[in-house]
Design goal:
alpha/beta; FAD/NAD(P)-binding domain; Alpha-Beta Plaits; 3 domains; 7-stranded mixed sheet; 5-stranded parallel sheet; 15 helices
């Protein structure tokens, strides 16, 4: 089969690599002049920052991608993934804080007990409730293609449950700080917890069980590794080539429309926001994108506070500091995200939290949510949660149009490095080996 993959972000790269490995003739088209999308690096004045994700949960998803398309990930990296001792530090308005470790139930109990006696047990009781949730998701949604019209009984029950994450956190925690920690991933991705199904809190279980991991040299290294993998597998890569629409004949995809004409296809993998393609837009009209945060990539010099990989400042606005950028000697590279009512420069707001780095800034790259979405042809935060039905309105891995498949943050199983990576695996399963 001749397959065109639309989009050169993580989902597109992973889909192309997997499909080429199982014998298909693959063409990848990317509107930007370079590959990577949200996973790519941002560089200025000798400083380099990860464009979006700086770490990943469930590293097995990346390992499986590389193993199923060629050499193992660690062999390509020349080393091991780096575990984070502290996944996130949370700082609250009452000046208390907690550093959340990953990969250990006992370590999390100890960490939360430092926040208050008995809070460790309260935390793990909440997280424990997600063990069966993950089992259902893994078996019926994350690891195998799913059909929204034909759900297994336990997945149907999970997706039909009316409880929201907001309600679950209020029920499980008397201390509001634990609720802030448990819900912060969804809030950071732009969701209102009153519209998020309770099962989405499974992320906290994944952190506890699998931990969080970084790639040596930054997550953007994945782009270079996958680009080389595509070359090895004979994938044709067309950068600077925007897909305008799909041509559908007799309810089956026939071609991809690009600026220079049409590319005939047997199948298409859409790894961008499907709203970008007029043929698919009506299929997702009941969904909205989750808007990215305001982002400031900061190049710093001189002494700065010694912070873990990620610090969440729970206030208005919500701010997240990520510290894993690459800098020249004597420098430090941070990325600052802001959400909420942003009425001042983020560095001014940061200074009110006693982290004053205004005099250390020598370069910065400021990006608005709109600029990020336009640059990446979609939001890395995926689809906005608007209630329990949202999960059924996302496309992927298959779509109602024969021969059209969907991958990426806007498709099943959702946003985040492991889920976006896994969306490519689902597409490869749905299409199957070349005949």
């Amino acid at each position: 089969m001749r397959i065109v993959v639309i989009g050169g972000g993580l989902a597109g790269l992973a889909s192309a690599a997997r499909l080429a490995k199982i014998g298909h003739r693959v063409v990848l088209v990317e509107a930007a002049p370079t590959l990577g999308g949200a996973l790519g690096a941002v560089s200025q004045d000798g400083y380099t920052w990860d464009g979006s994700a700086t770490s990943t949960l469930v590293p097995a998803a990346l390992r499986d991608l590389f193993r199923k398309s060629g050499r193992p990930l660690e062999a390509e990296l020349g080393g091991e993934l780096e575990p984070l001792d502290v996944i996130t530090e949370h700082r609250f308005e009452d000046r208390t804080s907690v550093r959340v470790p990953g990969g250990s139930r006992a370590a999390q109990i100890e960490a939360f007990d430092e926040l208050g006696s008995g809070l460790g047990e309260a935390w793990v009781r909440h997280v424990d409730t997600y063990a069966p949730v993950w089992d259902v998701l893994r078996r019926h949604y994350v690891e195998v293609p799913w059909n929204p019209q034909d759900l297994p009984k336990d997945l149907y029950s999970l997706f039909s449950a009316r409880e929201t994450l907001h309600k679950r956190l209020r029920r499980d925690f008397r201390d509001d700080r634990l609720g802030l920690v448990a819900g912060h991933r969804a809030v950071a991705e732009g969701h209102d917890l009153r519209n998020v199904p309770a099962w989405v809190g499974v992320t906290n279980y994944l952190e506890q069980i699998f931990g969080a991991w970084r790639l040596p040299g930054g997550m953007a290294r994945l782009v270079d590794l996958l680009e080389k993998r595509l070359e090895t597998r004979g994938v044709t890569v067309l950068t600077g080539t925007a897909a305008r629409d799909l041509v559908v004949r007799d309810k089956r995809v026939a071609a991809v429309v690009v600026e220079t004409g049409e590319i005939d296809v047997d199948a298409v993998v859409v790894a961008i926001d499907p709203r970008r393609l007029p043929v698919l837009a009506p299929l997702v009209e009941r969904t909205m994108p989750a808007i990215p945060p305001v982002v400031s990539h900061l190049g710093l010099v001189g002494p700065v506070p010694d912070l873990p990989a990620e610090v969440v400042l729970h206030a208005e606005p919500l701010m997240i500091i990520r510290t894993g950028g690459r800098a020249p000697e004597g420098g430090t590279a941070w990325t600052l995200h802001g959400r909420g009512k942003i009425a001042e420069d983020l560095l001014e707001a940061l200074a009110r939290h006693r982290i004053d780095i205004r005099e250390q800034v020598v370069t910065r790259v400021d990006l608005s949510p709109r600029e990020l979405v336009e640059q990446w042809n979609g939001s890395p935060c995926g689809v906005l949660w608007q209630g329990r039905g949202t999960v059924r309105y996302r496309l992927g891995p298959t779509t109602p149009i024969t021969g059209v498949y969907a991958a990426g943050a806007h498709a099943a199983p959702g946003a985040g490095v492991p889920f976006v990576t896994q969306s490519a695996a689902l597409v490869a399963q749905a299409i199957g080996p070349a005949k």
